[in-house]
Amino acid sequence: MKKVIHSKKCRQMLGIVVAAAVLAGALFFWKSHSSQGNTAKAGAVKPLVAVETIRRQDMFSRIILSGQTVAAAQVDIAPKYAGHITRVAVELGQQVTAGQILVVQDLEDIDLAIAQTTAAIRQAGADSIEIKAAFAADYQKAAADYERNLANYRRYEALYNMGAISRETLDTAKQQMVNAKAALDVLKEQSMPSGVPAVLESKQAALAKAKYGLEALEKQREDRLLRAPRDGIIGYRQVEAGAFVQAGQKLLTVVDNSSSYVDCLVSEQNAAQIRSGMQVMVAIDSLGQEYPGSIIYISPAADAQTRLFTVRLALTLADVAVKSGMFAHAGIAGLLREQTLFVAKTAVTEKNGKQYVFVIDDKNQAEQRLVTTGQRNDETVELLTGIHAGERVAVSNVSRLKPGMAVEVDTHI
């Protein structure tokens, strides 16, 4: 009885296996025929491609200039001399004008020195006048004495010739005349090349020295009054009254935003396409605004480390909203080649190191053409050989194309 039951179970299992095998075969046969049918249908569909008619045109590249805005001037204010600060006349963000006093250093000592030098000048001036008067009096006296003694000598000489006086009397008169002349010569020899006596020249030199000393002190006093070098806004303030500052210590910064620039760095290739005077539109993202501008400077040499060139853009219109340090960018068209053939980059395929394009003929059939490429920009590539002006080149669905394949040209692009 058990053997009969076991035999029935085996037959049932065998039937199930056979039925599953038949079902699997039927399913494989159906999928195979369905796939072949779809493939046949797909092969009948022509690829839809966009084409571009090749013409000779000037080829440009889009050069993006990016950088930060720079104020017309940013001047740091620092003292020339160390000392205490007695007054700070401005606040952070305050508008100032050229020549306005911003910071005052302690002037007490310098004022005392100026007063002392002024008194010395008055003293030197008085001494010069006194010496000049004394010298003039001495000279006049010496000249008069000489003239008198010379006249006496000549009179005594005449009397001696007549035998009226002795030789001793004549010699005495002569000696008096010689002494008077010597005194006059001493005064004459004191005159400098300028004609001024040495004693007076010395006093006048001392007076001039004192005057120069006064000018130096007055200049030092002025240097302790820190003024705005130009119109602008106080963009940095790190000083308070009573503080002691060192010479050269940065206290304030005056920022002149009356005009703005944008400094950019560009590669050697892009620098060769940029010319001074080119007009640009400069976008400042943080303001959401564009400003007209122009290129005013291209560095004559690349930076030794980065090998980049500096380009400066000047904004034509002034705007108080433009602050120094804002990110800005501008785009310009640089000429790569005049009157050349070029096509969209999507049209060019590469295989084994060679470049190809598909030319679409009048019957809308694809012909694979070997080409030589040249200059490139972000969107197009120059075709040096392998293509002629007026031919149509496929620029989309290129990966699906085969040589000789019929295509459908997309006329909606």
UniProtKB/TrEMBL annotation:
InterPro entries xref list: Beta-barrel_RND_2, MdtA-like_BSH, RND_pump_MFP, YknX-like_C
Source organism, top-level taxon: Bacteria
Keyword Disulfide bond appears in the UniProt entry: no
SUPFAM superfamilies (UniProt xref): HlyD-like secretion proteins (SSF111369)
One Pfam match: YknX_C
Every Multidrug resistance protein MdtA-like barrel-sandwich hybrid domain range: 74-256
Family named by the database record: Belongs to the membrane fusion protein (MFP) (TC 8.A.1) family.
UniProt name for this protein: RND family efflux transporter, MFP subunit
Species in which this protein is naturally found: uncultured Sporomusa sp
